[in-house]
């Protein structure tokens, strides 16, 4: 997302070398974080062998991340809801455990569908390209129905797949939108 948005404001200057180096670094740090998290979960008995710039930030950057963050949180929440009993035995406390299944379903639905609402609002106010991620909406409805019916086993994995396509369509929507039609990128 950052690459697409930066390319819109950099005056045509783009470096594939910087992009590839950044991707390698981000993927390495993310993988290391996942590895440490998985190791700690394994040591604590939560998982088993089978599961398992200039330092400034603009507010607009965070705003562009909200749809992806909510969608990603839906993945984590579906995983926590599926694993309530395993986590309870391991002594963990999760939001899903605290609020119970019914409210977990409500939270999951909010995390899942608010990004789509944001894209509709964005399309109305800024660029019609922001409707592109809505291509994934039928799958989102299917996953919400399966969650509601307590068919949770594969939802985290399928949510991750949905998040990938959702993110790709979001990136393409931002890429295709003229910079002046995207909120907060260019000074008014």
UniProtKB/TrEMBL annotation:
Membrane spanning stretches: 93-117, 123-141, 162-180
Gene3D superfamilies, per database record: UbiA prenyltransferase (1.20.120.1780)
Coiled coil feature spans: none
Record's keyword terms, sorted: Membrane, Prenyltransferase, Signal, Transferase, Transmembrane, Transmembrane helix
Topology relative to the membrane: Multi-pass membrane protein
Cell compartment(s), UniProt: Membrane
Tree of life domain: Eukaryota
Gene Ontology MF terms in the entry: prenyltransferase activity
Entry GO CC: endoplasmic reticulum; Golgi membrane
Signal peptide extent: 1-31
GO biological process: menaquinone biosynthetic process; vitamin K biosynthetic process
Classification via InterPro entries: UbiA_prenyltransferase, UBIAD1
Family: Belongs to the UbiA prenyltransferase family.
Protein name: UbiA prenyltransferase domain-containing protein 1-like protein
Organism the protein comes from: Euroglyphus maynei
């Amino acid at each position: 997302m950052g690459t697409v948005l930066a390319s819109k404001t950099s005056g045509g200057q783009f470096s594939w070398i910087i992009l590839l180096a950044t991707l390698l670094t981000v993927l390495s740090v993310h993988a290391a974080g996942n590895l440490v998290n998985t190791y700690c979960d394994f040591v604590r008995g939560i998982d088993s062998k089978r599961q398992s710039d200039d330092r400034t930030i603009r507010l607009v950057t965070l705003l562009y991340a909200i749809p992806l963050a909510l969608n990603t949180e839906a993945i984590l929440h579906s995983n926590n809801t599926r694993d309530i009993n395993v986590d309870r035995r391991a002594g963990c406390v999760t939001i899903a455990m605290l609020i119970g299944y019914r409210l977990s379903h409500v939270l999951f639905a909010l995390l899942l569908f608010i990004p789509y609402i944001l894209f509709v609002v964005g399309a109305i106010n800024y660029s019609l390209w922001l409707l592109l991620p809505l291509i994934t909406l039928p799958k989102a409805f299917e996953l919400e129905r399966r969650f509601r019916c307590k068919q949770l086993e594969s939802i985290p994995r399928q949510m991750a797949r949905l998040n990938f396509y959702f993110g790709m369509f979001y990136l393409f929507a931002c890429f295709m939108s003229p910079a002046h039609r995207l909120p907060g990128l260019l000074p008014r």
